[in-house]
Amino acid sequence: MPQLFFVPGPSATYFTLEDHLKSALKEQVMAISHRSQAFKDLYQNTQKNLRSLLEIPAEYEIVFTTSATEVWDRMAENLVDETSLHFVHGSFSDKCAKAFQRLGKKAEIITAEAGKCAKFEGANIRQTPELIHFTLNETATGVKHPYADMQKAREQFPEALMALDVVSATPTTPIDFQQFDSVYFSVQKCFGLPSGLGVWIVSPKAIQKAEQLTADGKVYPSYHPLLELVEKSKVYQTIETPNTLNIYLLGKIAEDMLRKGVTQIRREALYKKTLLQKLFTDHPQLSPLVTEADLQSDTVAVANVEGGSAPLIEYLKSKQMVIGAGYGKAKASQIRIANFPTHSKEQIEYLVDLIMEWRI
Amino acid sequence: MPQLFFVPGPSATYFTLEDHLKSALKEQVMAISHRSQAFKDLYQNTQKNLRSLLEIPAEYEIVFTTSATEVWDRMAENLVDETSLHFVHGSFSDKCAKAFQRLGKKAEIITAEAGKCAKFEGANIRQTPELIHFTLNETATGVKHPYADMQKAREQFPEALMALDVVSATPTTPIDFQQFDSVYFSVQKCFGLPSGLGVWIVSPKAIQKAEQLTADGKVYPSYHPLLELVEKSKVYQTIETPNTLNIYLLGKIAEDMLRKGVTQIRREALYKKTLLQKLFTDHPQLSPLVTEADLQSDTVAVANVEGGSAPLIEYLKSKQMVIGAGYGKAKASQIRIANFPTHSKEQIEYLVDLIMEWRI
Asked: Which value does ipTM take for this structure?
């Protein structure tokens, strides 16, 4: 019997995915050469739809990587000589900061306790960062970083590149690309695609920095240097044979989302988010991890469960509903519920009703 | 109208692929968490089937990368301190050698003219290599490197790691894993899968070398270090969210191939290879690029076309048959035809008949 997946990624696939897989077979997307015109057309179509859906400025470049995890390394390798600044309010923002440190960068880290946002305002910054990294939506804790706080960092360090992890946020939470230089996500979250593709969007300022570091011989010469990714992307090509199927599917699902309208997607997300947060407040054994309303993620709802999360997760599994456990150390004590575009209002309503009825 | 793809990768998908995609949807493979037991079971199944199909020794580890191109970087980063030796008889073996050089290794290169094999025997080797890289089947030229020659290198440099590119060869061309330490391929060639997954098989000796280099602080700290790939793989896990769909599909198609029998696959390949090479000899405007029988690839047939390859390629396209042009500089003068397990005897016979009838 099919299950409904509310784990925050990989999660339920987008409801049109099956149709697009059928089209991919019919159009022989998996058999075409990645050097063919058919591939270039497909690539161009995906770029066009993404650009339109996310309102990416024309002068920004869109490149594909193999995952968002890869982007952490590529940012550290291509956009930073020495210093970066990271705001950590969960495991994923932490892993990103650690990637920069692993690759020899002086990555300064501002941390927050669980459920709070590591903010620029009030932080004691010790070094001038070349790049400032924010996590718009921390998938581990469901914390949203408010844009107003990021703006303050930009004002204080106008030279720095602004990097933004939107892995589980986009396209639900809007992005003003003009405020950022390096924005990235993976496709198995809100886009409801099979995993195995990262999308990295870079500003002219980021490319300029990569050019300068390259000229100075300071970019690690991996097989995926940013400048070569960009150069290939401009002619709708990739360095190696890519995940063509996913590039195709992303273009199709971006088109579906354009048709539905991103405003409608956002309106529904807000409704579902309200239901989930209300559940966490109303249920006697649940409490929201993130208590400040402006810090609550639009797409990932996290709650503490009195007595531990396992019984609730098991109970829902018996109803064919799969939600996430807490991340890392919080595995046994928390639940995480994805509120992605493919999760319908009716599904979330049903899930909320089921949980409301549940007691240990 | 559907086309038949004989380009040497990406190429025609394996004939059972559509069924497995349907199963993947039914089993919700694209929605499960990569940290779930369902994922571990799927991963273990793929490893088991691959190990059985390719007769990979129990003490060798199988890890997944995002492409074979990635493996070039990972080998240079994890298995070599200073020196490597490369036998180049086409663009792909060349790109591999260049990757080692790009990453700062002293990569010695032995080259051959087009259609010949760069052999160890008779080569003047200037340095003692830590790793010797061979390309079993050069996809650009259709040259097969004879095992007997590789064996001589192993005898002369018993300390060196033996690396083998089997990208477009496996499972058609057999591999004696005991003779090699690092063997890799991508799945969009003989396995007929969507692109976006690399498979890297390493010996205990290779792991030992990586351990030593890691202890000495000589391994570049990427997000995909060999030792961590191995550590995760041992518990059927991956470092980041992987291409789960492809790992699943690879397991299924390996199972299909096991059922058919690898002996049968090899017998059919030999028959098809003979037809193609005979065509190249018999047709007045074609001539085989590789003239020595023991150097002719089992899976990729390459021919020079008198007057240029474009008219023949166009003629076949009008019959819904898509073959490859020559690679790189040979694009306009050569054709390349894949003879992969999914290409049936009947399809190759029909293709050969069509080409036999063709004149400029």
From this structure: 0.97
